[in-house]
Write a structure and sequence with these properties.
alpha+beta, four-stranded antiparallel sheet, 2 helices
Length: about 100
Amino acid sequence: MDTNTILNFAPYLLIIVVFYFLIMRPQSKKRKEEKEFADSLKVGYKVITSSGIHGKVNQINADKGTVLIETGAGKMTFERSAISAELSKKLNETVVAKEN
């Protein structure tokens, strides 16, 4: 291969590298954080679902991968993946700040 051929492929390689660092890597990192959050859920945690429902974890069914959440309207069952990690962390931070 001569230098001209390598220079012709350089823009394509650069696009692939940029695509990886701007899209794929942050997305996999976020997915990993959400999985860790879902695995660390405990009874009594205040959470927000991805649909915006606020509630408190009342029961966790590890076999089915579901969570029973108690809200003002009653109890509802959600998939663990439906719990929004980002919003729930913010909610729990404000609860801790108010207690101090």
